[in-house]
Target: Bacterial regulatory protein, tetR family
Amino acid sequence: MSPRADALRSRERILEVARRHDVRALRLNDIARDAGVGIGTVYRHFPTVRALVEALSVDTLVRLGDAADRATAEPDARQAFRGFLDDALTLQLEDGGLEAVLTDMARTDPVLHDECAAARGKVFAGYDAVLSRAQRDGVVRGDVSAAQLQLLLCGVEHAVRLGVPADRDLLLDILLSGMRPDPQAAPDSPAGVAAIRRPAALG
Model:
């Protein structure tokens, strides 16, 4: 086996083992031990825990971008919006490091920065496309930005982790209910503009 092929195999082995660990408590020494490789091998591929977390999250970011594509292709805006948030929440709960990658690119490891930035850019474009369509169709209030939506979903993720996993769907329903157009909003306000459009339930 060539040195390059051997290095790729080692990298994939490290990632495979790391996926079985709690990403919020990763230690490179533990990963090296469980992967059956030297600590130097781990450091050559991932010089910091942050770099390892980001490498794990790139695949999740790609899957989240694919979820946005599916939502964009869904004919019904209500179903598209709910389905996308449901998929996004599932992925964030599966990947404990995803939130950090989504919200703090300034700390991204230089080796992975371009790959993370490209995947994250597609995700944010997907958030914007799905949300904008839902707002145009009167499904969601008009004064919420894509960045705010992403932070709200992170809040639901935290609530699920801190509480009972069985409450996941209930907490998502509460978020969706709070994003419905407000029928009492002033007609010339952003929320009011959304409210006078075609009403649609989110739940």
Remarks:
- The two ends are 54 Å apart (CA to CA).
- The longest helix spans residues 110-136.
